[in-house]
Specification:
single chain; 69 residues; mainly alpha; 3 helices; 51% helix
């Protein structure tokens, strides 16, 4: 799609996008970083990547051994 547009149209689209982005409210990283850290720490007890998946609920557990003769 972008290949079919002229350079002027591409620049106009970029300016429109930048106008939208400048209107987004921004928060300080010192505030949002703490919120993210608190959330991650609160959810750590239920995180399967940290805690692991019980063998009986693991959908990727091998059903049986492969036997070749």
């Amino acid at each position: 799609m972008a290949q079919d547009l002229s350079e002027k149209e591409l620049l106009r689209m970029e300016v429109e996008q930048l106008k939208k982005e400048v209107m987004n409210p921004r928060d300080l990283i010192s505030k949002t970083g703490k919120e993210i850290k608190d959330y991650v720490e609160a959810q750590a007890g239920t995180d399967p990547l940290l805690k692991g998946i019980p063998e009986d609920k693991n959908p990727f557990k091998e059903k049986g051994a492969c036997v070749t003769s």
